[in-house]
Amino acid sequence: MDFCKLIENKDINNIKGVILAGAHHGQEYELFKSCGINKMLFIEPCFPAMNTLTAKFGQNEDVRLVNCALGEDNYETEINVETANNGMSNSILTPKKHLLQYPQIQFHTKQKVDVKKLDDLEFTREYYNMLYMDVQGFELNVLKGAIESLKNIDYIFIEVNRDELYEGCPMVEQLDEFLSDFIRVETNWEGGTWGDSFYIRKKAYKKQLAVILFHSDIHKIYKQEWINECLTSLQNQTIRNFKVYEFCYGHQTIDRVWQHPSGDIRYGYYYSPMPNHVFAENAAIQIAYNDGFDYFFIVNLDDSYSPNRIEKQLEALNNGYDLISSDFIRTWEDGKKETFEMSKLNFIDEARKEHNIIAHPVVAFNRRFWETCRFFDVNGIPREDFDMWIKAWNKGMSFFIMPEGLLYHRVHSQNVSQQPITPIT
User: Fold this and answer.
1) Alpha carbon of 15 to those of 6, 11, 99, 237, 291: distances in Å?
2) Considering the entire predicted model, what is its pTM?
3) Residue 368 gets which letter from DSSP?
4) What pLDDT, in 10s, does the model give residues 131-182?
5) Distance, CA of 68 to CA of 50 (rounded, Å)
């Protein structure tokens, strides 16, 4: 798991300091520094590793070193020691399936170590709001000895298990249960039976918002003024803590429309030639999904949006709806405008008439929707969205069409879908 990319995607910029349990040789030091974390408390039980830490960081004012293991109480015990992995697999617990998964790593010796509760160590807890753990199956023991210290912790990066690599090691579900004040926002099962997880305190967690743009040969089919109007409407949103995912799928030109990202709006550009816009939309959403984003907002570059679009739809998503759309104002090239109040219609009644009342250019949805219903049918043009909404309805997704005109939908000769829609007067 890429730690720096993780905290960037989660829009985390307030990590004051980190407690590293199982510091080994302090390999994470440069990683923490590159992420803007300067205050570090390195805790390591094994003497050879502690000697290395002292040589590297003994004179570093930003790093404090403590020689002990962390656990649920204070006592002396033995740690199982290996050398094939340079001591990085050392564990107080007895190796079990670890011996089968990594037969080259054998534990031939033991070393006495002091175990202490994190709560009993003397340090200024207000300096540290992140706990980073690499303790080889001893995670729950460490947490049980850190009840008071956890009150100052907003973020936890921890190794997790779904098999018994060490005897009695907790499964990830047990950690979820213990960390009831936190939410597990990311898990990477790199080792198959084990992986890394990132927890955020519920009160500190901000939902991550992805704005999805996708286009091909955009300047050949859309007027620049249309594109500018769309981008300006995004930059003028009342809520701006989103990341723009721009995906270009053209075969002839590599266009980039988001030329001047605003300082507080994050941005990523992706290019890959694809057969049609549905492939590109699926790919862009999946990239944002893989990055751990929670909510997804579809944007069409020939349309523009009310300044409170994201704010209004975010509120509805937070209230538990899976798929959000809205009423919209349709504009023609001659300046004519017409309001479509789709919120007054019933989705399933209209679907039976083959009438799509979910306006795709102003759709927003959550992770549950994408996990349950992905992907849009790449062979279903021009009704790939309508078929997706029907599939989602049949799978129990909850819909809400907001009774506000959050979309200004432009009608022109290059529209992908020209499906007629009857306005309500």
Assistant:
1) 13, 11, 36, 27, 20
2) 0.69
3) H
4) 999 999 999 999 999 999 999 999 999 999 999 999 999 999 999 999 999 9
5) 9
